[in-house]
Amino acid sequence: MLSLTRAIPFPLQETFYRGLTGSLKYVGAALQLVIRLPEVFAGPGASLLLCDAVAGTGVTRLLLVTDAMLVKLGLVEPIVQRLRERGVVVTVYDGVQPDPQVEQCEAALALLKQHSCKAVLAVGGGSAMDCAKIVAARATNDKPVWDMTGFFKVAHAPLPIYCIPTTAGTGSEVSVGAVVSDPVQQKKLPVIDHKLVPRMAALDGRLMTGLPRAGTAATGMDALTHAVEAYLSRIAIPESDQYALEAVSLIMRHLPRVMENGADEESRQMMAWAAYRAGLAMNRAGLGYVHGIAHNFGAHYHTPHGWANAIVLPWVLEYSKPECTSRLADLARASGLHTGGERDADLADKFIAHVRAMKLNFGIPEGLKDLREEDIPGIAEAALHEAHLSYAVPRYMDQATCEALIRKMLV
Ligand SMILES: NC(=O)c1ccc[n+]([C@@H]2O[C@H](COP(=O)([O-])OP(=O)(O)OC[C@H]3O[C@@H](n4cnc5c(N)ncnc54)[C@H](O)[C@@H]3O)[C@@H](O)[C@H]2O)c1
Ligand SMILES: [Fe+2]
């Protein structure tokens, strides 16, 4: 049991000691939580196969959670039609907004109850998937969403959750998390529980070919950040390393291609796969300061999540480099940046420069124009609180250091 200290950040250990009933096993010398995997359908048209499989589970009444834009774009109708053909009564909630708020989750929950739905299907980006996860958890747990933020606070198993992602980014289709926002209190907090892992996910790149350039860049950089932060995490294990390196390699190859040609179905499919693998890496090894800061940019300024990550990522990598040079060099190799014989320190620099150049090339700037000097202490404090409670970062940062780092992003 003592080897937990090497494997899991402190707040998690506490939860384990309190008697978590999830499946635990030893990996090497360390104890790890075994996280269930969704049943995955991948390839063009996979979303319709998922509909068949959902109907095959015997569910007859289902809530589909999505946003109005996706309904307008015609992405939702074929899915609804397929489910209805298979005998499932579908109720659609299309009120999800980017960075879902409690009010939207509660409105969807009311609809779920009104129509006696027994499962939840998300069609959309991270916002729709996270909203669906929270609705499924609220349906079986009679406590406010804010009492579920943090680790392992979803006491009862949620209703079955199914996901059809339409962005290649968040990895929510496989992740243990769901993020909820409160714009009034400027809070954006994760609910993290292995019970939130969806039952099934469809990785259908065809649904992503219409995603505009800015959204493609932001969501792709989110997936990259998941893989990079998981790889640099101090609780990374060989399994998460494998997922992270595969994701980084795919993203470096295919994100520029989908930015060049959004209709490139093959590269869209590869990005869907990469985001999923990055999500697996994140489940195992967690995230880091980039997400801590980006979540708080989102909470204060509603900055799209992936956009915020892309702004913050190079700055945090530069800061972290002294403590993770060889890991950054591995990421450079996975990105195909090595020419042979270079020192790790040079490769690490090359990787950071490449990430910076790539996001600038996609039109994502070095700094955040909404950022205000007077907000920086609060953003730094909240980011450090999130990170130190949840993530095994490679190089520790104190309040003054974090403020100085964020100040670099003033424009
Ligand atoms: N649960 C997790 O593990 C996890 C991880 C990272 C981020 N998140 C959360 O996910 C949210 C962000 O999700 P996101 O980046 O996927 O964006 P999103 O779901 O907020 O969608 C952004 C916009 O893109 C549009 N869109 C989505 N798919 C489209 C498509 N195929 N074609 C055209 N338009 C499309 C949507 O209508 C929306 O207007 C944030 O709240 C973030 O905090 C969750
Ligand atoms: Fe993310």
Overview of this protein structure:
- It is a single chain.
- By secondary structure, the chain is α/β, with parallel strands linked by helices.
- The protein has 3 domains: 4-33, no CATH class; 39-207, 3-Layer(aba) Sandwich (Rossmann fold), CATH 3.40.50.1970; 212-407, Dehydroquinate synthase-like, alpha domain (Up-down Bundle).
- It has helices at residues 4-7, 10-17, 46-56, 68-72, 77-85, 102-114, 126-140, 213-232, 238-260, 265-285, 289-301, 305-334, 344-361, 376-390, 399-407; strands spanning 24-27, 30-33, 39-42, 61-65, 89-93, 119-124, 150-151, 161-165, 177-182, 187-192, 200-203.
- The chain has a 6-stranded parallel sheet with strand order 3-11-8-6-4-5, with helices on both faces. Strands 7-10-9 form a 3-stranded mixed sheet. Strands 1-2 form a two-stranded antiparallel sheet.
- Helix 8 packs across helix 12 (305-334).
- It is globular, with a radius of gyration of 20 Å.
- The model is unreliable at 1-27 (pLDDT under 50).
- Nicotinamide-adenine-dinucleotide binds next to helix 4, helix 7, strand 9, helix 8 and helix 12.
